[in-house]
Amino acid sequence: MGRLRRISISLGVAAITATASLAALDWADRNYPPPLEEARAVSTEILDRDGQLLRAFATKEGLWRLETTVDDVDPALIRMLIAYEDKRYADHHGVDLMALGRAAWQLAANGRIVSGASTLSMQVARLIEPRRERSLTAKLIQIARAIQLERRLSKTEILNLYLTHAPYGGNLEGVRAASLAWFGKEPKRLSTAEAALLVALPQLPEKRRPDRYRHNAHEARKRVLERAREAEVVDKTEVELALNASLPSMRRQLPALAPHLAEAARRKAPEISTHQTTILRPVQETLEKVALEAGRKLDPKVSLALLMADATTGEIVAEVGAADYFDASRSGWIDMTRAERSPGSALKPFIYGLAFEQGLVAQETIVEDRPADFFGYRPKNFDMQYQGDVSIRQALQLSLNVPAVRLLDAVGPSRLMVRLRRGGVTLKLPPNEAPGLAIALGGAGITLKDLVQLYAGLANREQPVRLGDGIRDKAELVDEESLFEPAAAWTVADVLGDVLPPSGSPPAGIAYKTGTSYGYRDAWSVGYDGRYVLGVWIGRPDNAAVPGISGYQTAAPILFEAFAKSGLAGTPLPRAPTGANRIAASDLPQSLRRFSLESNGLVAVSARERPPRIVYPLEGSVLERGKGADGEALPVVMKMQAGRAPFRWLVDGKPMRESTRRRTGEWHPEGIGQSTLTVIDAEGRAASVNVFVRN
Question: How does pLDDT run across 61-111, given as a tens digit for each residue?
C-alpha cells in the first residue's frame, strides 16, 4: 500500500505540475502576445481601377513593404519556398522537432552549425520581432513566438506574413516589392528562375543581391532549383532552363504614377493602407510620358496639366498635374488640374449653346464681327483684325471675340452662370463683382477639372454626371436636366467637330476648342469624342506671362497627341437628335438669317424684350409623321426665339403642358390635318403658325 500511495502522490504532483505549467504558459501567452499589430504596418498603396499599383508610399521606417498574400504570388513560388525552407510546414505546429533534433546532432558531432532548423513560422517570428543577438535565449524566444503564431493564425496567414516581411536587401521587404524592384512586374506570374531567386534572396539579402553579387545570387538560385527538383515540385526540364536564365542587372524604381492624385488619396483617408482610384494605369502612363516630352520643349519654368474623363460615368481615367512632379523649376508638386486660372475663349461654346437652345441663332445665321462698344466694354479679337459679316459657325470655329460678346449680351451673363452651375461648375469672379460680358473672353476663374466637367456635359448630352475626385468610384448626377437640350449640344459639337486640327496633328474625330488667357498666361485645349473628354492646360504655376503661347499652337497639338496615344479614342460623336440638323442659309426663316439687336446709340437692347416668334415649323409647313426604330411616331420639334420666359405652347387653342422657360418644345400630333401652333410669353405676347400634318 505504501508503494501505491507513493506512486499516486507522484502522479498527482506531476499532474499538478503539468497543469500549473500549462496554466503558466497560457498566462504568458495571453499577457505577452506576439506583436501582430506592428506586423500589419505596411506601405500605403494607390491602385488603379483594375487593382494595378500606381504608387506606393514607404512606411514610417522608410521601408517598401507591400502587403502580399498567397493569392498575390505565383503558386510555383509557394511550392519552392516550402520545399526549400520548411518541407513539413503543413504538419508541425511552429517547431519541426525532427529538423531540430537533426540540427542538434550535427552541431554536437561537428562542433559547428551544419544545417538550420528554423521553420517558416519561426522565421516569421524573427521577422516581426527582430533581435540583434544570436543566442540560445533568442532562439528559445523565437520558438515560443512561433508556437504563439500557430495558435492564433492559420498556415496561410503565417505564409502571408512571411511573403510581406521577408527581406530582399536595402529597404525592400516582401515578395511584391522585390518582384517589382527586380523584375518590374507583380509576382502573380513568375518564371521558374524568377521564383527561385525570390526564394533564395531572403537568407542573405545583401550578399545575394543580383546587381552587386551576381555569382552569389546565381549559386543561391541554383540551390533552390536543385532542392525543388529533388522535391519534385518543379519539372526537370524547367529546372535546366532556369539554371541558364539571366539574372536582373539592376534594381528598378517602384511605380510612381499619378503622384498628385496619390497624395490627395492619402490625405483623404490616412488611416487606410489601400486606396482604389478610377485611373486606368495604361492611360495614365501614356499621358505622363506625353506631358514629360512636351514639357522638355517648353521654357523650364512652364508647366502643363492634362485630365481625361469618361463623360458617361464621371470617372477620371488619367490625371497629370504637372509636366514633371519632381521638377522644382516648374513647381511640379503643384497640382495644376485644381488651380483656378482664366479660361480665355474656352467658355465660348457654352454661350453659343445657350443661343442655339433659345432659338436666337442657327449655324448659318450671319453675325457682325466689327468694333463694338458694350456700355464701355470694347472687346477686340486675338489678332486685332475683324472679319466683317460671318456665319455663327465661322464665328465659333475662328473663336472671334466680338460675336461671342454679342451673343452673351443677348442671352445674359447671369443666365450663363446659372446654366454652368447646372453643369456642376461655379466660376470664380473677382470679389464683389457681378457676372459681366468679360466672361466670354476669360474674365472668370476656372480649374482644368471643372472645364473638363463642363465639356463632359456637352459630350454626354442626355444626363451629365459630376466628375469624381479620381478616388471615389461612384459618379454623381449633376442635375435632373442636361446641360443643354440635345439639339443645342449636338449643334455645338457639329461646329467644333469641323475645326481643323493643328498642323501636323492627325485627325482624331473629336470636337475641340482652344483658349488663350489675357496676357499669354494660360493656353487651353479641350476635346471630346462620343465618350471621353480630355483637357490640356499650359502656363506658369506662378501665373506669370509666357509670351508666344496660345491654345491652338501650344496646347492643341498636345491634346491631339494625347488623345491618339491614350488608346481610348474612336467612339464617334453622337448622331443628330430629333429636330437637329444643318440648315442652309437660304433655307433659314427671315428672322434667323441675321443676328442683330435693336440698338439705341451704343446701348444694345436685350433680344428678350422683342415679341416671341416661332422659327420652326414655318408658316404653311407640311409635316410628315416620321417613325422611330421602335415604330413609335416621332414628335415634331418646335422652336421659338425672343420673348420673355416663361412660355406656354398651345395647339388649336388648347394648352399642351405647363409653362416652360425653354424656347423649344415637342408636339405629338393626335392625327393628320391642319393645326395651329401658338406660343405665349410672360408679357402675353403671342405668335402662331399654321401647319398641315400628313402620314
Answer: 999 999 999 999 999 999 999 999 988 888 888 777 765 656 555 555 555
Of 45, 67, 85, 150, the active-site residue reads 85
- Is 85 in the active site? yes
Please tell me the distance from the alpha carbon of residue 653 to that of residue 655, in angstroms, as a whole number: 7
Write out the three cell numbers for 349: 461654346
What does 154-209 look like in DSSP terms, one character per residue? -HHHHHHHHHHH-B-STTEESHHHHHHHHHSS-TTS--HHHHHHHHHGGGSTTTT-
Determine whether 246 is an active site residue.
Answer: no
Q: How many CA atoms lie within 13 A of 628 on its CB side?
A: 8
Per-residue CA distances from 599 to 230, 374, 605 (Å): 97, 11, 6
At 376 the pLDDT is 82
Sequence-separated contacts (24+) of 216-219 with Cβ below 8 Å: 217/247, 218/247
pTM (two decimals): 0.80
**Length of the chain (residues):** 695
Q: Exactly one of 118, 273, 345, 517 is catalytic; which is it?
A: 345
Q: What's the CA gap between 662 and 608, in Å, rounded?
A: 13
**Which amino acid would we find at residue 520?**
Y
* Burial class of residue 168, CB neighbours in 10 A (0-12, 13-18, 19+): buried
Q: Are 94 and 150 in contact (CB under 8 A)?
A: yes
**pLDDT < 50 positions in the chain:** 21-22, 112-115, 598-608
Question: Which residue type, as a one-letter code, is found at position 64?
Answer: W
